Automatic annotation (TrEMBL):
CDD domains named among the record's database cross-references: Radical_SAM (cd01335), Twitch_MoaA (cd21117)
Assembly, per entry: Monomer and homodimer.
UniProt-listed PANTHER family: MOLYBDENUM COFACTOR BIOSYNTHESIS PROTEIN 1, MOLYBDOPTERIN COFACTOR SYNTHESIS PROTEIN A
Residues binding S-adenosyl-L-methionine: Y37, G78, S129, M197
Record-stated family: Belongs to the radical SAM superfamily. MoaA family.
UniProt KW keywords: 4Fe-4S, GTP-binding, Iron, Iron-sulfur, Lyase, Metal-binding, Molybdenum cofactor biosynthesis, Nucleotide-binding, S-adenosyl-L-methionine
Name of protein: GTP 3',8-cyclase
Function statement: Catalyzes the cyclization of GTP to (8S)-3',8-cyclo-7,8-dihydroguanosine 5'-triphosphate.
GO-annotated biological processes: Mo-molybdopterin cofactor biosynthetic process
Length: 333
């Protein structure tokens, strides 16, 4: 890097030369599940409506990010399907110049109704989060009896052509991951496991009880033949052919084999803060300046400033690691 001052033009870079191309937008912090690794049984104090970006503000900021080189936008939350205007936001982002690819991460509840309208609005891809295929275990993990809704949502996503439908699972101890893989293979869903991270509001994460990449591979390998897929690029998932392919399974080892050096992500929270990392301790407020009349250039400068401060890695496991103040559900997973 020639100069160490914040760039005033060009793509969104940090001081380590990484370039952001993938924007995660949290459209709400509210949720209708209470996954134990994410939030407490009683839920969280939700953001007040006036604190949240309205549709015009959200679309304006996404337009700025796209002008700064973002080519993929993923809507998340909280549970993004709880934002009533989601379909409108997707449609409007799809109409932007240099239209980004658009993806959604959802728990799948309500997707039976919304998959087709989302596809019609221009959504390109979908990830549905599901950690178990036992409806009893689903209740224990999410504290809600909604397994059948998720099952219907997944089917509706496939019927709407949002294929390949991807399933994201947090690897949970006590769960045989090969049951979920068998279930997804039967239905043509592409499964990716992720290691549990210290992002829960209750701060109860414990590395010693976490199911690691190696635990996962051992358990899956006992039932399926796995062989590595080459060409990982900047994608966080390490992929394996199952029984020779073409079906694959992915493992995202965020904790035991972090991929921060190749990170291309930046995040926008539902209350208009830009964050350069899930684990960032700082964020930059875009909502306040925007409501005070900031120009596009001024907002773009704030986004660049935030990216410039991106740390080399999340530091989980290092002595100075501190969990971020916001839980995953308020950052946007
Ligand atoms: N509610 C939506 C959902 O569950 O897909 C979107 C938001 S959720 C925070 C996004 C993803 O983060 C989900 O796949 C969820 O399983 C994952 N997640 C939540 N807490 C996590 C944690 N502590 N470690 C790893 N992944 C987590
Ligand atoms: Fe809700 Fe998603 Fe968190 Fe589960 S992981 S409580 S579905 S935000």
């Amino acid at each position: 890097m020639e100069s160490m001052s914040v760039p005033t033009a060009g793509p969104l870079v940090d001081t380590f030369g990484r370039v952001a191309s993938d924007l995660r937008v949290s459209v709400t912090d509210r949720c209708n599940l209470r996954c134990t690794y994410c939030m407490p049984a009683e839920g969280l104090p939700w953001m007040a409506k006036p604190e949240m970006l309205d549709d015009d503000e959200m679309v304006r900021l996404i337009r700025l990010f796209v002008a700064l080189g973002i080519d993929q936008v993923r809507f998340t939350g909280g549970e993004p399907l709880l934002r009533r205007s989601l379909i409108d936001v997707v449609r409007r982002v799809g109409e932007l110049p240099n239209r980004p690819r658009m993806a959604l991460t959802t728990n799948g509840i309500g997707l039976d109704r919304l998959a087709q309208p989302l596809a019609d609005a221009g959504l390109d891809r979908i990830n549905v989060s599901l950690d178990t295929v036992s409806s009893q275990r689903f209740i224990e993990l999410t504290r809600r009896d909604r397994f059948a809704d998720v099952e219907r949502g997944l089917k509706a996503a496939a019927d709407a052509g949002l294929t390949p439908v991807k399933v994201n699972a947090v690897a949970m101890p006590g769960e045989d991951p090969s049951d979920l893989l068998a279930w997804c293979l039967d239905r043509g869903y592409e499964l990716r496991f992720i290691e549990q991270m210290p992002l829960d509001a209750q701060h109860s994460w414990d590395r010693s009880t976490m199911m690691s990449r190696q635990d996962l591979l051992d358990a899956l390998g006992a039932r399926f033949r796995l062989s590595p897929v080459e060409q990982r690029g900047s994608a966080p998932a390490e992929r394996f052919y199952v029984n020779g392919g073409p079906a694959t399974v992915g493992v995202i080892a965020s904790v035991t084999a972090p991929f921060c050096g190749a990170c291309d992500r930046v995040r926008l929270t539902a209350d208009g803060q830009v964050r350069n990392c899930l684990f960032a301790r700082d964020e930059n407020d875009l909502r306040g300046p925007m409501r005070a009349g900031a120009s596009d250039e001024e907002l773009a400068d704030l986004i660049r400033l935030n990216m410039w401060g991106k740390a080399p890695g999340h530091g989980i496991g290092t002595p100075n690691f501190q969990q971020p103040d916001r839980p995953m559900s308020a950052i946007g997973g």
